[in-house]
Amino acid sequence: MELRQLKTFVKIAEVNSFVKAGKILNYSQPTMTTHIQSLEKELKYKLFQRLGREVTLTSEGKHFLLYAKRILNLCQEATQRIESGTLAGKLTIGTSEAFGILRLPAIIKEFRLRYPDVSLEIKFKYMDELFEDLKKNEIDLAFVLCQKVNHPNLTAEILAHEPLTLVAAPENFLVQKEKINLMDFSEQNIILTQRGCAYRAAFEELLKKLKTPPIIMGVNNLQAIKHYTMSNLGITLLPHIYVEKELKTGTLCKLPWQEAPFNMSSQLVYHKDKWHSSTMSAFLKIVREYRESQE
Known about the structure:
Elements: H1 3-15, H2 18-25, H3 29-43, E1 48-51, E2 54-57, H4 59-84, E3 90-95, H5 97-102, H6 104-114, E4 119-124, H7 127-135, E5 141-146, E6 154-168, E7 190-192, H8 198-207, E8 216-218, H9 222-230, E9 235-239, H10 240-249, E10 253-254, E11 263-271, H11 278-294
Parallel strand pairs: 3-4, 3-5, 7-8, 7-9
Antiparallel strand pairs: 1-2, 5-11, 6-9, 6-10, 6-11
C-alpha cells in the first residue's frame, strides 16, 4: 500500500470521478485504475461502485476512506514538523456558536502564541452535526454546550458549568413580576436558536407541558437573538455568560424564574479511538490549562 495510491483513492472519492481526479493529480487513466486495483487486491474488497459514468464508494470504501484520510494527514504533519523543526500541521476544530464566541478565543490566542506554525480551521455547527463529524474523522475535536455527553464512541471532558438565564427587554411586563412560572410563557413570543441546539431542546421539552404552546421564533445567530430580545420581540434563554454585560447595563433583564434551573456544561469532545498527534496533544494541554484557570 503506497501513499500515492491512497491519494488517488481519496481524490476520486472527493470528486466522484476517475477522470476529474486524474486531471487534478496529473495521472493518466491507466495509472489511476492501476492504483485502485492494487488497493482493492491488497484489501480484498471493492472500493468503488461503477454505474455507467457515476462512481460511488461502496460501504467498505466509505469505511476505508476514514483511515486513508487519517494516514495522509499524519504523513503531512510529520513532513511539516521535520521540515520546520517545530510543531506544525493542521488542526480542525468544531464548535457550537456559544462556546466559539465566549470561550474559544482565549484558548486559540494562547495556542497561537505558543505554536504559530500550526494551521487552525474552526467550524461552527450544531451539536449533532459535530458528533457526526467526529465519527467521520472530519474534525479533530469539538466544543459543545449541552448536558453531559454520554456517547459510546466519544470521550467528553467538562470544562465549565454554564447556567442558562431567561431574559427579556426592560419594558416586558414579566420583568415587573415577583416570580414567573410556566403559564407565563403562553403569553409570550419565545426567541430561540435553531433546532439542533441543546438548550433549545431542553426549553421546548418544558413548553410541551403547556396546553397552548407559545410561538417560537428560530434564529441561528446569538447576537441577533440578543438584539431581537432587547427590541422586546419576545423573551429568550441564553447562557448567562453571554448576557452578563447586558444585564449589568440594564439593556436586558433577568426574569424571576424560580422553578427548576436550566443548567448545561461546556465540554471538550473527541472520538475515543482518535490518535492524538503532537499538535492535538499540545492543544488539549492548553484547553485543560484553561479549565483549571476557570475553577
